[in-house]
Design a protein that fits this description.
Elements lengths: L5 H19 L16 H20 L8 H5 L10 H17 L16 H23 L7 H14 L18 E6 L4 E7 L2 E6 L6 E5 L2 H8 L10 E3 L1 H10 L3
Parallel strand pairs: 1-4
Antiparallel strand pairs: 1-2, 2-3, 4-5
Helix pairs in contact: 1-4, 1-5, 2-4, 2-5, 6-7
InterPro entries: DinB/YfiT-like (IPR034660), Maleyloyr_isom (IPR017517), MDMPI_metal-binding (IPR024344)
Pfam families: MDMPI_N
GO molecular function: metal ion binding
């Protein structure tokens, strides 16, 4: 099991950004991205690179409040197609410089519950992983997500989900003790319990009201980020509960 530290998250984020840049190098940036409806590859790349720069700017200044990301991203519209892959790589350096300049426990603004620099090293790793998957799926090329990254990505999703306040449906992820199990063929398994005030999760293969099976944690990660088809997966028990969770956990 990987001992994920702030430094490891930062290094892994750089690796994933460089991999994504390699995937889009020389691509047709008018290619539509089915997993991000309404976006083409140019919009996907400028959004992803913009998020890296937004995070780097805030981390670099240990921002006490949110900076305006839309204003920052508006400055990237003039990039030529041939510049986009290199620009994405350049963002990896900017992000790495900012993240490694501060200890992970340095306090700063974050939209999740962990309001420290380490929130951003972890978030930028998984932001990039999912958007790299978007790019690869759009271009029809192969890609892989390391299983240790995917396992942490599943838990990061569950950690940040309650704070996605721009999605009112998330506040409805409550219940009276119903349980959802996510199980993978690679051995990783999680148990989610719905309570009156929200949900909690733990690593467990215990029986549940409903169970979703995936071959790997990487496959599960894409499913919970709605980058896969739930109906193609094996589901046991109260399958309506799994569909309800999927509808209410989209962020």
């Amino acid at each position: 099991m990987v001992d994920w530290t702030h430094e490891r998250y930062a290094a892994a984020a750089v690796t994933q950004i460089e991999r994504m840049a390699g995937t889009v190098e020389g691509a047709d940036f008018t290619t539509q991205v089915p997993t991000c409806p309404g976006w083409d590859l140019r919009q996907l790349v400028t959004h992803t690179g913009g998020v890296h720069r937004w995070a780097a700017l805030m981390v670099g200044e240990l921002a006490a409040e949110r900076y305006d990301r839309a204003a920052l991203e508006a400055g990237f519209a003039g990039l030529a197609d041939g510049e986009l892959a290199g620009w994405l790589r350049e963002g990896a350096g900017l992000l790495d410089e900012a993240l490694t300049a501060h200890p992970g426990d340095a306090p700063m603004w974050a939209w999740g519950g962990d309001r420290h620099v380490r929130f951003w090293s972890r978030r930028q790793l998984h932001e990039t992983v999912v958007h790299h998957a978007d790019a690869a799926l759009a271009l029809g090329v192969t890609f892989d997500i390391p299983e240790d990254v995917a396992v942490d990505g599943v838990e990061e999703f569950l950690d940040i989900l309650p704070y996605a306040r721009w999605r009112p449906e998330v506040r409805e992820l409550t219940g009276d003790g119903e349980t959802i199990s996510w199980r993978t063929g690679s051995g990783a398994a999680w148990l989610i319990t719905l309570g009156p005030e929200g949900f909690a999760y733990e690593r467990s293969a215990a029986r549940a009201s409903a169970t979703l099976h995936a071959d790997t944690a990487a496959e599960l990660l894409l499913l919970i980020w709605h980058r896969g088809e739930l109906e193609r997966q094996r589901m046991d028990g109260e399958t309506k509960l799994l569909r309800w969770w999927a509808d209410h956990s989209m962020i």
